[in-house]
Structure formats: structure tokens, C-alpha cells
Amino acid sequence: xxxxxxxxxxxxNLIFRYVGVGESEExxxxxxxxxxxGNPEKDPLLIWLTGGPGxxxxxxxxxxxxxxxxxxxPYNGSLPTLVLNPYSWTKISSIVFIDSPVxxxxxxxxxxxxxxxxxxxxxxxxxxxxxxxxLIDHPEFISNPIYIAGxxxxxxxxxxxxxxxxxxxxxxxxxxxxxxxYILGNPVTGGDNNYRIPFAHGMALISDELHxxxxxxxxxxxxxxxxxxxxxxxxxxxxxEECISGIWSKFILDSDCSFTLQKPQGDSISERxxxxxxxxxxxxxxxxxxYPDLLSQYWANDPHxxxxxxxQKGTIGEWKRCNYGFPYQxxxxxxxxxxxxxxxxxxxxxxxxxxxxxxxxFLATQAWIRSLNYSIVDDWRSWVVQGHxxxxxxxxxxxxxxxxxxxxxxxAPQYKPxxxxxxxxxxxxxxxx
Length: 433
Description:
The protein is built from twelve helices and 16 strands. It has 433 residues and is α/β, with parallel strands linked by helices. Strand 10, helix 3 (154-170) and strand 11 (178-185) form a beta-alpha-beta unit. 44% of the residues are buried.
């Protein structure tokens, strides 16, 4: 347990630990656990996975749904200040934030051979083992309603993980836990990238003429299966990239600060892996949308912080909010079939989208939800927080609720914490949004 000091002298309790998984427990998964501030004996338990793959769960804890935030000040050389998040989801639920897969956050492999290699299926297998061991150590939570949650690339791993846990319960491998469903924000599903151009058009980032030309020359396949000999498509796509080059794709109302420093590198038309591309630009300055990342980097690499967290010395080098420098196998091309299987089993799901995210546009999410072909039980309408429209929602007969979060980006709770907490609170209590 750690007492984290916040501004004003408040001390916040965090429980953190390693759990060994895999052969001889060679993989050590690091996690943070925050008990519900409400009624932890009865409140839901969330297992939170951050996307990437390779991003630390500290992101979910301190930027999105956890009880702490950084005070956003220009860095002065001292340890960044933590403050309380008044809209933490831990007010009504307990949350386990897991650094997964191995290589993310403080999670590490004891040996650098096969243990350090991971992928969609291997990550899920490790998480099932983690979850089983965690419940053995915390049997008081077995009867609590349990949900698996995450965002971004977790849209691939969470549905696979829920199905694996569900199968384990049915086969008697896992304890008979009260698994109720899952929650996903702006989730990668497969084929999402092809909706970026229609999204850019709808948001007036590209002209009608360019949009029509792209549709005609590329045939709707903008990011994959592009014929290299299709020079017209490639030319129009380059024009599209020039139009959006100064836009922060995670939240299109912000500017991409790296644009004026160094152009992004890498193949921009690769499927899913485009989420992993990161420019080797200089560190962000105060006011850039990714400046808060820098505060985490200073905080997590401070030797006093590492000592307080009992991080094993020599296990990792520099901590990064998102580590993309390890081998990863993308085994799951699309998670739609997993959503279909889970719907057939009767699990609840909340799928939400920040409507100003171009990385995983809400158009892509709406498309795969429609493909499940379930009837609508509560049709498209606004949902309101304190008299203001917070977004729009629709509910389906498979117990799936879809919601947009108005004027929010890729990690919606980071942009609209009050609204997202209201959304979660209503949904988790079986209330209409």
C-alpha cells in the first residue's frame, strides 16, 4: 500500500503489487488497486486495461477514471503535483489498473527470451491467470458484479478476455464469479482506419471534391489493401494527409505540436499499427495536448516514487506512458465476432465514443455495432448532464448501450470527466443515460 501525497496534504491509498504469470511466473504484471469510496462490499469491481498495446494503466488511473490527476503546471524541476479527481469512477466502484502486456508500465519479464514476447492471445492468457490469482488473494470480491473495461486498443483485447473468462467460469477453471459485462471507450475493433476519411469530411477537414475523389479512386479502402500501382488513390491520399497534418488526431480541436517541429514518421496506411506510430519529436512544451504525458514521465522515473511503489530495481529502464519498443503479435484482426458471442451469452456492454476523435472515429464504432444486427430498444436521443447535452445514445436488444461523448477526444473521460462519470454511474446502476 502506498500513501500518495496530493496538493493540500491529502494522502490517498493505493495498493500496488506484482503478480507472476506464465511458466515459472517469468512475467511479472504490475497493478494498482483502488477500493471503492462507496460500498466496496457490494459496489462493482472493474478490471481496467489501457490500450497501445504497451501503454501503462497509470494512464487510466491518473488521466481518465482514477482518483488522481496531475496539476497541469509548467514543469519546474520538482516532482509533479497530484490532485484529487472529483469525478473518479472509484467513487462507486473498485478498480484494478493492470500494466499489460509485459513491457507496459512497470511490468517486466524475468528473462528476455520467450517471456518477453507477447501478442493478443498471449496477453489475454496472462490476464486470465492474473485475474484468477488476484481473486484468490481477494476472495471478498468474488460475489461483486465484475466488469472488464478499457479503451483504444483494448477494444481488441477486452472482448477476447471477457470470452476467455466466461468460458473459464463455465468450464469450472475459474471461480464462479459474478461477471456481468464490459465497458469500452473509442475501441479499436478492426477496419476502423477506413472511417477516418468520412469522419474528416464530416468534420470539414477535407473538401467535398477530395472526399468524392478518394471514394472513387480508392474504393473505400484507404488504409489497407491499397494497390501500389493505383497512383491516383495514392496521390489523393497524400493530399488528404496534408490537409490533416496539423490536426491532433486524438482530439481534432487541438493542434499537433509536433507538426511544426518534425513530421510524423512511418507508414500512415498500415492497419491498426498506425495507433502505435510515434514521432521522434522533441518533448512537448506546456500547452501541447500531450504535455501531461511529460509529467507522468518525470513522476514515474523519479527514484523516490519508484522506491515508494516498490518497483524492482533493474527490471525496466526509462518508464514511458506508452512503450511501443517490444515485439507484439497482432493475432486478432477483428473483435466483432467476440462481441457477437458475448451478446449471445447475455453480457451487458457500454460502448462510448468521444465524438472528436479521429484515431478511432465514432463512425467506425457505429458501423460494427450495426453489423451485429440487433434491434433497437431505445432509439437515438440526447443524454443530458446538469441541463446540457453531454452526447447521444442508443440501446440495443443485446444489452449493448452506445453513447457519444460530445466534444471529447480519444480518451473521453480525460476531456469530459464530469459527463463520463455521470454516464458510467447511470449505466452501472441500470439507469437510462
